[in-house]
Design brief:
Elements: E1 2-3, E2 23-26, E3 29-32, H1 36-47, H2 52-56, H3 80-84, E4 99-106, H4 111-122, E5 127-133, E6 138-143, H5 150-159, E7 163-166, H6 171-190
Parallel strand pairs: 1-3
Antiparallel strand pairs: 2-3, 4-6, 4-7, 5-6
Length: about 190
């Protein structure tokens, strides 16, 4: 089996980080991939019986329109005033240098989207946890702001094709949700 030591991702053409563990094997050759997202897509293509895609393509796929990681597009989200909204009171013994947010994410269509988002974010230095709520198109994420900025997190999502913004439910939605929980609790008690 041959392993290529190319510096470009076989799927998208992006630079491959040194010692990247992601790859795809076609025939007797192993090709490097730049991220878990490309690995997931490449394996899905091959496992779906569509490996000829790689043989027949004449150019690399178009990269989703998104901002770069150092973009000023999301700089507002890094301001101390904005970050204060996400700072939570944590139990004793838990690192106080962490933020948590719920993000509304556009473009989630299936479990594979959730898997891709979680794996891409969990690979970032500074991420504590990420979990996608598929039914509501929400992403719950916790991170260390000293290692990763919210703007970088949003740019990373845009880089894999998902636009996201911090989500804050309005008070009317919260009241409705509270009333539903209260009704369910009352029904349970009466039963």
């Amino acid at each position: 089996m041959t392993t290529l030591s190319a510096s470009s991702c076989y799927h998208c053409g992006s630079p491959v980080p040194s010692n990247a563990p992601w790859h795809i094997t076609l025939g007797d050759t192993t090709y490097p991939l730049c991220c878990p997202g490309c690995e997931a897509v490449a394996h899905a293509i091959v496992q779906g019986g569509l490996a000829r895609y790689y043989q027949q393509r004449t150019e690399l796929p178009e990269t989703p329109a998104g901002e770069t990681l150092d973009s000023d597009a999301w700089a507002y989200f890094d301001s101390p005033e904005f970050e204060a909204k996400f700072r939570k009171t944590l139990p004793p013994g838990v690192d106080s240098d962490q933020l948590s947010a719920t993000l509304a994410v556009e473009g989630i269509t299936c479990n594979a989207c959730g898997w891709l988002i979680e794996h891409r974010l969990n690979a970032l230095k500074g991420i504590i946890s990420s979990a996608v709520d598929l039914s509501r198109h929400r992403l719950h994420v916790s991170w260390h702001p000293s290692k990763l900025k919210l703007s970088q997190l949003l740019a990373e999502l845009a880089g894999i094709g998902y636009s996201a913004l911090p989500f804050e439910p309005d008070p009317a939605q919260e009241r409705v949700r509270y009333k539903k929980r209260l009704c369910a609790w009352r029904l349970g008690v009466s039963g």
